[in-house]
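pls ignore typos typing on phone
acetamide + seq
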Amino acid sequence: MAITPKINGSLKESGDLFTLPKDRLSAKGATEKALVLAERLQRLPGYENLELAPVDSAEATLEIAFAEGPEGGYKLKVEQEKVTVEAYGEEGAANALATLYWMLRDGKGTASGCEIIDIPECGYRGFEIDSSRHFFDTDTVKSMIEQLSLRKMNRLHWHLSDDQGYRVESKAFPSLNSISSYRIEEDGNKYGGYYTQEQIKEIVSYAKARGIEIIPEIDVPGHVVSILAAYPNLSCRELPIAVTPKFGVMKTVFCAGKDEALDFAIKVIDEVAGLFPFEYFHTGGDEVPKDEWKACPHCQERIKKEVLADEEELQSWFAEKIIGRLRELGKTSICWNDALVSGKQSDDIIIQYWREQGTYCSDELKKGRKWIYSCFSNFYLDYTPDVTPLRTAFAFKPVLNSGELLTKETGLLGFEAELWSEWIPTKVRLEQMAFPRIFALADRAWNGSDSYVEFLERCNKEVERLREDGIACFSMEEADPE
Ligand code: ACM
Ligand code: ZN
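k done
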């Protein structure tokens, strides 16, 4: 079966042939997920008028029941007259129906009888979209979610705020939209936008129906120039600053010495957290230059009053206040590994590892933390394929700078690829940079196999499918240049 990710369990064929009626998919259980399947199948020739008919009896053509098992996994049984799913959690139902969809698509409305057991190796299979550097409309975000879901990925990390634009409708602070959501480009044009709260809720439920949970990121205390453009009083020097069209690490950050900066960050995060029901919230913490804090009387006063060793501990102090608030909201925080330099962060946060300078993560490993591994050399898909070819995207190994290997036993939750959008202005470019390289992560994080040659065959098929669906992607030759 040409399916990505490859089944991680067993497949037994029975010789039966199931044929889907052209007009009616009668289904019992997990109606929201069955509706997604029906909508996908409507795109098959001859099935344009297919309708989902929720039924509450044994006459269902598709019967989905939930059972205890590893989250995301499922059993799928295809018989002559009926398809039965045993799903482990909501994700399991979405994943089972993704498999069924590919079978019915390849079989033009038929599926060979079989029994499949399919269980993910790894529980976190993520992808990041950066909507700040370039703003992608809701249809683009949904289209990416649909493609990720069809490959059983289950987390979308949504980078919603950075120096170049703030992208969430704020009812608490309207200037975050009138000022922070727009920038003047170097050619003089105004560029930007933001997602309304209604649009965000719609995307969250669209993703949920496809087995994907969304993790918002509001990156603090650095990467906040767009916010400071509206509220310069929250920086150390309080100088007027514009939402920047430039890329790179900016020195102007939130003042960690001023209570109003911390209060503001907490209120913004409160508002955003209310829009995203999933338990994880990303608070950033990467690339925080300490130049302004070193020269700021408020920051230095804070260091003295809180008996902190230095500016790294000041960053941890600031982060702890935010993480504490998220904890009150029932959320677990994720931080980039840069936020942990001081070694003073509380135990329950999850580290996202991208690039360590030094070996402090080795100490964090001994504390028993949870990790998401996103080392830039394999997982930064904003690097073009001449730098990060498909084979490199596939050949990841979760090692720290110190050489220690992360494993499930040492808290590794899984993997995430990043698509920073500085140089990705359009949907087409976003799709090319994501596809097919993201399938390397989708495949290996699900089945744990490292057979590149076998993967290439299936990946080739995925490229054909994307093309049929009008989704841009690099060809296999472009994705994996010699
Ligand atoms: C990062 O790439 N600054 C996390
Ligand atoms: Zn300051």
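The domain at 124-479 is CATH 3.20.20.80 (TIM Barrel). Residues 286-287, 336, 354 surround acetamide (ligand 1) (CB under 6 Å). more later
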